[in-house]
Amino acid sequence: MQVLIIDDDVVSRMVLMHLIDGADSGGGLEVLEAEDGEEGWTLLDGGLRPAMVFCDLRMPRLSGMELLARLRADARFAALPFVLASAANDAATMEQALGLGADGYVVKPFDQHKVAPHLARLAAPLPDDESAQQATARLGIDGARLLLYLGGLERQLDAAGPAIADLLAGGQPDAARAQLERLREGCATLGLHGAAAGFAALLDGGAPDAARVQHAIDGARAALQRQMVSARGQGA
């Protein structure tokens, strides 16, 4: 399992690598480096698929915010865990990061207590999604019917983001949670187990955050698209 560190400051990279190695008691993590956002993007676009990215906020060529926005606009990386790191700890910067879909924000200087909670997520990976063949066999339907179901869920996901954001803005968290539960059930029914787990995580606690809701929806859409490709290849 790989963790990618993107930071133009070599000392910061060294410190973070040391902390990750110290937290990796099982020796299952491989730490990779990139010197700025542009190099990080080149690695990811070229096929690197790390389990998590730690990225500095301010860098030459491509900043952490710019890289995050580029990743979240690309279906390949919609669900990639991405943690921004910066010496800036003002609320506006943190809010902007979360609004773009960051999964976390670490304030420098690094220490074990700040980094360990993010690495803990890797100890319990999301369950694997089913292939179209597995889903059709379990549901007792053919590939054409699965595509119809997937299309219906896709329309629900497209409508859910703005609808849930409006409910949260209007002070209706229970109604927002009810919509999230329906999305969770739909994903679980169609074998999109990782997406279902993402929605379940939003339901486990208080009122969900609109930025994290959209991030979960984007991840679900990416998983749905993969299963659609699988269903079409099955001969639907």
Structure explained in plain terms:
It is globular, with a radius of gyration of 19 Å. Helix 1 (10-23) packs across helix 5, helix 2 (37-45) runs parallel beside helix 3 and helix 7 (143-169) runs antiparallel to helix 10. The chain has helices spanning 10-23, 37-45, 64-72, 91-99, 112-120, 132-139, 143-169, 173-189, 193-203, 210-233, and strands at 2-6, 30-34, 52-56, 82-86, 104-107. The chain is of the alpha/beta class. The chain has ten helices and five strands. Helix content is 58%, strand content 10%. Strand 3 (52-56), helix 3 and strand 4 form a beta-alpha-beta unit. It has a five-stranded parallel β-sheet with strand order 2-1-3-4-5, sandwiched between helices. The two termini are 34 Å apart.
Oligomer: single chain
Specify the overall morphology. Answer: globular
- Share of helix among residues? 55-70%
Which H/E pattern describes the elements? EHEHEHEHEHHHHHH
- In which order are the strands of the major sheet placed? 2-1-3-4-5
Distance between the termini: 34 Å
Please tally the β strands and state the result: 5
Strand content: 5-15%
Instruction: Please identify the structural class as seen in this structure.
Output: alpha/beta
Taking all residues together, what is the mean pLDDT?
85
Radius of gyration: 19 Å
With helices defined by DSSP (H or I, 4 residues minimum), what is the helix count?
Answer: 10
Low-confidence stretches: none
How many strands, which pairing sense, and closed or not: the largest β-sheet?
A: 5 strands, parallel
